[in-house]
Structures are given as structure tokens and as C-alpha cells.
## 1
Amino acid sequence: MLRIEDALARMLARTPLLPVENAPLAAAAGRVLRADACADMDLPPFDRARMDGYAVRSADTASASSDSPARLRAIGETAAGSVFGGAVAPGQAVRIMTGAPLPEGADAVEKIEVIEVLEDGFIELRAPVKSGQFITPRGIEARTGDAILKAGAGITPAASAVLASFGYANVAVSRRPRAAMLSTGSELVDVSERPGPAQIRNSNTYALAGYAGSAGAEIISTGIIRDDMAETRASIAQAAETADVILLSGGVSMGDYDLVKPALAALGADIIVERVAMHPGKPTVFARLGECVVFGLPGNPVSVAVSFHLFARPVLMAMQGAEMIHLPRVRAYLSRRVKGAPPRRSHQPARLRIDDGRAVADPLKWSGSSDLVAFVRAEALVVVPEDRERLEEGELAEIVLLGSAE
Ligand code: AMP
Ligand code: MG
């Protein structure tokens, strides 16, 4: 049985890199950038007012006080989107709105709240203004030519905004992985059906579609396969014609009707991983069928989630050339003990909170790896090392962050 790291390393060594394509910026959200992005101009492109007030020459205010205010002539106004026509000479000021370029001659802005605006076209300031006050100087955020995002960066909403600022109407991104989802199990019926005796509804497809979608995949097909060799073979072969990734669930344990591995072998697939020293999720299978990457994930819904996050997610991210392929990890104190599963590394669903300044993980009560209803609340996994029977209440444990939960 392979350790998790070794299994993932073998998978990544056989993960193809998808081609690059150009996408309009709005369609690039959530995808992976594949070329370095540079600033095409300084940002901000001009010295910019940060407050509504008056643009002044700071030297004019050097000796201002409440007893003897600095008196300046207001010579005009300027707002965001316009350039002030003239220049501010000694003894003068210009009314300015947030976002406007600083008029020539001025070197600071004073906010309107502390300025006395007189009837006769003059203003008074009761304290000195420092040079540069309330100005965002040209180029402080980026200079023309600066690398602002590296190839491999995820296009988050903030990254989209940065790309927009520098004129990236089209962005070089990875093609999205085309994922086919196949749920194996003769007991499975579609969500729209009422299960008969010994049947259950197929739920894995829906979890996997969401997980794969949030890892950038495009779901091209879904289906249920009976535990039948010919059907399993044919469905996998058909999916492999168009998919970059096939996510199978079920049919990988030791039962007589666990047909995923035999079907893959019969199709001539290269089976690279077939068991991993982890709990839940031990029978995780990874294979290559031509250019197509195939995951055989264990059928139990919680095992599917754990295996997906530890293996399929990083593989999907790597396919897209992402720099960050792993989920973030933190450490938190356990609010109660959790069981381990030596010699396998165990992952226990938990919620997180801050208590008295400390990160605390509340392991969820769950009845086992089919307990989807408990797992729905999980926002993290507590990692129990392979050599530990249990982790005690109060112990500091490694935590994998899963992202959004209820
Ligand atoms: P298997 O890995 O095929 O032995 O399945 C393990 C357990 O997971 C069995 O109890 C299955 O009924 C259940 N299971 C398998 N596939 C699904 C699915 N798509 N949705 C919900 N439960 C499933
Ligand atoms: Mg099954």
C-alpha cells in the first residue's frame, strides 16, 4: 500500500498538461492563468486624490493654526475623469473630488471636513498639511512592465480585477479539464426515482460534479453503470473518447462485483495506483487510458470526498498548470478525541472556530464513511497520523481546509 504522498507523486508524474487557450476576461474567472501578466501602465496612472477636499501647496499651510489660519483662494474645481486646466500658484487651492488627478502645482489634498469655506471665494485651513497627504502617488501599486501575476496563478475575483486594470480583455488560460462522471453500482437509481428494495439513490455524481467544477473542470457527461463487466468496459471506453478525466465511483473494493479495475485492465489501461494507506479512501485507483486520466474512487460518499480532495483535486489543478495544487493546511486544537486507523493515515471531518484566540477543531460525530448527512457540515479534515491509535482532546492537530460548508 502506498503512502498518500507517494501515491500522489505517482499520479502527478502521469498527469498531462492541458493546452493553453485564449478566453475573454469574464470567461476566465476560476481558471488558471498560463502566461505571466505584466502592467501595461503605471497604477495609478497619475497622482490621485484619495479624499474629497482641496488640492493645495503644502508650503502655503506651513504656519497655519487656529489663531492664524492659512487663507487660500479657491480657483476652480476638478473631479474624477477630468484634468484640471490650469496650475495651482502660491496662495491658491482647487476643489478636488476623490479619484481626480492632482492639479499641477499642488502637492497635497486636505479633506473638506476640516476646511472652512468662506463666502468670498477663499478657504481657510487651521493646521499645516503634509506634502503628499491624501494622495495615492502615480505608480505606487505597479510600474509599467512589472510582473503582476505569474503563469500558474488562479484567476480569483481579485486577479480578474488586476487583469482588467492592465487591459487584459483576453487572457491565456488552461483549457478546462473535460470530466466524465460514472457512478458504478447495480443498487443505484437516479435522483428522480424512488428506490426499490435494496436500492439507493446515486448521490456521488452530484458531489463529484460540484467538487470537480470548483477545481475548474467542465462536466461533459454523467451516468450510472450496472455492476456488469461489458457495461463497465463500454462506458469507460466511451467516456475516454472525449474526456480528459473520468471520475468513477464505487466498484473498487474487494467484492465479486467490483469491476472497475478488471474493466480498466481489459481496456489496456495503465493502472498506476490501486490502494493507498489512508482511511477512508483506501481503494483509490488511478490509471491512464491513452491520454485520459481515470480515477476509481471508493463508493462510500465520505470516501469519495476525501479521495477527491487529496488526489483528484490536485491532479485537476496540475493538469491546468496551477502553481497551488494543494488545499491549505493549518493547525488547530481538538475539542475532543478522534480515532486513528493505523497503519493508515486517517482523515476525520470537522468544523473550525476560534476560541479565546486559539484555532479549535470540532470533530463531527459521524457513523462512518457512508455518513453523508454528517459530512455535509464538514469544513475541514483532521489528519490523524498513521502511527496514532487516536489523537487526544486538547492536542494540536494538522487540519486540511475543505472550503465552503453550510
Ligand atoms: P462500493 O465501493 O461499490 O463497494 O460501494 C461502497 C458503498 O458506497 C456501498 O454501500 C454503495 O451502495 C455506496 N455507493 C456506491 N456508489 C454510490 C453512489 N453513486 N451514491 C451513493 N452511494 C454509493
Ligand atoms: Mg459497488
## 2
Amino acid sequence: MKPEFRTEVPADWKGIRIVGVPDLLKQESSNLSPAVREALNAQNFTGTPNSFLPLILQKQDRVDNLLLAGLGEVPSLTPLQSRRFGALLADAVRDRSAILFRTEDVFPGALPDEQTLMHVLNGFCARQYSFDRYRSDREKTVAQRLVVVDARAASLAQLWERQGHIVDAVLRVKDLVSEPPNVLYPESMADMAAQLKNCGLEVTVFDEQALAELGMGALLGVGQGSARPPRLVALRWTGDHNPDNPPVVVAGKGITFDAGGLSLKTRPHMQGMKNDMAGAAVVMELLRCAAENRLPLNVVGILALAENMPSGKALRPDDIIRTMSGKYVEILSADGEGRLVLCDALWYAVSRLNPSCVIDIATLTGAMSTALGWQKAGLFCNDDALAEELYRAGEQTSERLWRMPIDADYDDLVPRGDADMENATFGQNARSIFAAKFLEKFVDGRPWAHIDIAGTAWSEKDTPMARKGATAFGLQLLYQFLERRASA
Ligand code: BES
Ligand code: MN
Ligand code: ZN
């Protein structure tokens, strides 16, 4: 659904008209007619957030369909409150086909700025999403029309150009993460990524042979147990006026299904492991967004795609593999596959792309949700300035990060065994930090950040902002980060 922006209410409007009502207990002054006030009292409608009341009003010769929407204490709407309000509104008008959002009616007395309206619309569109493509009994969703009436229609429409691309990207990440692993696997995801050349991205897909030529023994090792071969995709957006300026590189873990390989997961742990490619989905849509919004920055996205399966050809615990960096890794657990596919992706970034910084995003460790729950993602970073930039972007988009330590105290965490390092530990302590310390060995001392979204990529229950399922966590935060970099 695309909002329409107009300066006037369309003639003969028949749909529902949103009327915002501030908290009636807290605020005396509101320009509601006595008739409406009376109706409100009769219905015990107080104007607190998440309270809605449909009303039918007769005015001389016409009838108005109103939906009163509680605003709480206006007008200081933060970005999060705005998105929340938009989401609640979307829920309340789910079965309506035409919605009139006249800013003056929705926010009586205090016109919000244009950016705040963008947040409201963002929340509205995001809340409508559900993954129902495979349900033949899915409700025939009403074709919705949302008309925004505001004197600033032209500049709002222009802002929505940009914001709409971000919202679309969020919804597409949710689609990708929700797709079942028999539909979405390394080759099919690489094919989808290849389509992005139509947006102006330069796309390179490395197949098994190309991966062998690059020496990516870790990515190949993880993929070798599956009937679906692995892929690495590089998506390049050259938006900077100087194409030679070092790019920001963002790499995503793209395990399209994580059975654990020969270190097979048990049933409750294997269920849901289609979402182990959430990082790669975020990176793919992030690059699309950069291209669609013509972001003035050089960015390269890397998708490390493989399926982690057990078979006669699968990587064995005890195997020693040679990574692209030349370092040897002894496999202790075939289920520690994320760090393996990423170590080759990171090395590719630092050895071939001359990055200004490298960021990876990955559903890497179950221990992440043990530490931080589903509310925040872990941020591991070897550069304080970069960590601060990412942290702030997370606060601004409500995709919040919490910094975890990877300082020298943890240097001995990754054991050497018979090779340069082992990929896992059977100890229970500091497992997320272990994985980060493992990755750190493949960034050659460059500014690098690792975002572990294992706890935040998927929501087990409905929230006010979104339904249960894929969250697209990281897309908005990383886009905000890139925009800040572009304007720095
Ligand atoms: N994909 C999992 C991590 C995960 C767990 C993501 C739960 C989302 C929800 C990862 O590949 C994994 O299996 N990690 C192991 C590592 C261990 C074997 C070294 C873990 O966290 O237990
Ligand atoms: Mn695993
Ligand atoms: Zn995994």
C-alpha cells in the first residue's frame, strides 16, 4: 500500500476519517464539537493511546464516518511513539478499504513536523505485514487506500520516496526470512540478489568453482554437506562522487537452513532455523535501499550463503580446513558454521575491497538471547568511534544495540588445538564473545563491528509494532548509519 499525499480532501470522500483525540483526562482544550464530546463520555472513550472509537456523524446533508484515535499526551511524539501510533492505527483500520488521514484532524492543534509523519506512516505500513503467501484460506485483504491530506503534500510525497523504500525493504527482509528453506536456498537467494542489478547495483555471484579459486575453504566446507551448493554474492553500490573512496562493507550470514551439520541439532533447536539467513537478507535489502535512494556513499554488501546439512559429504568434527586467509581451522562443532562462512567473507572484504570499515550482521549464537533477550542485539567492536556511531543509529531507529566486550582479557578464549584455531568450545561460558573473538582474527586489525542478531531476528509473539515472525532487525539501524556516514 502506498500512501497518497494531497492538499485537499478528495471530493465525495466515502471512507473513514481519522480524528485524533488527546488524553481527555489530561488535556482540557480540544476542538471537539459538543456532540462528539457527549458521544465520547457515553462510550467511556478517554483518548489514551491504543483506544479507538468508530463514530458516525450526520452533518446537514452528509454523513461522516469517523474513527477516533487516542493520542495520549501530545504533541511531543518521539520517533518510536510515532511509529507505535501508526502501528496501532493500522491495526484499528485493518478491515477498512479507504482511510483519510488529514493531519489537522489527526493531530488537532499541534501539527507534527514532516519527519514525525514519516515515522507514523512507517509504523502504519510495517504493522500491516503478514506472511500468508502459502495460506490458501488467507483473508482476502481489502485493497487499502490511505490518503494523507496536508498543506505540505508535495514535500511529504518527496520524503516518502525515501522512507517508502526503507519500509519496502523491511517488508522484503521479512518475506525472505519467512520463506521456507525448500524455496529459499543459496542459489535461489543469489538469483534474487542478481536481480538487483536493475536498481543500479553491480552484482557478482561466486559459484563453487569461483569460491575454490578464491580459496574459500571455510564457506565451501560448510556448504559441502548439502545438495544445495554454497554461493558468495558481492553487491556494490558506488554512490560517492569519488568511486575510489573506500567503501563501507557490510557482510551477512546467510545460512538458508542450519540443521547443525553432522553436529546435528535436536528437534526444538532445529525448528525455525530457516531464519539463519536473516543477516544476509538485511544486507541484500540494505544495498537495494542505498541504490534506490541514491545514497552518496560507496557501499559493498556481501552475502555468505550456504545450507548446513549432515550427509556423507559433510564437514566432520575433527576436520581441519584452510580458510581464504590461509589460517587453518579445526572443526569442533559443525554447528559453529556461521563463524566459518563469515571468516571467509570478512577476509575477502579486508583483502580485496580496501574498506573504510567492515560490519557483519549474523544470527550467530544462541547465547546472545541468553544474555540480552529479544530486546537488544549484541554489538562487538574493535573501534570505539564506530561502536558509538552504530549505537546511536540503533537508538534513533529503536533497533537497539548493547556493547559486549572483546578486549584483551578475552584473547585466550579461542583455543589452538592442532590448527591455528578451533571453531567452537564445549564450555558454556562467553559463547557469543568466543564467536566474536574468532571473527576478529579475520579482519586484519581494520575497524570492524559484529552485530549478533540471534535473539532479535525473529519474534515469538505479536508486539504492538509487528506480528509474530521475522523482524528485519538491523535494516533500519544500518541504513541510518550509512546515511549519517554519507552526510558526514
Ligand atoms: N544459527 C545458530 C545460532 C542461533 C541459535 C540462532 C538460536 C538463532 C537462534 C548457530 O549457527 C549455532 O548453531 N550456534 C551454536 C554454536 C556452538 C555450536 C559453538 C550455539 O549458539 O549453540
Ligand atoms: Mn549452527
Ligand atoms: Zn547458524
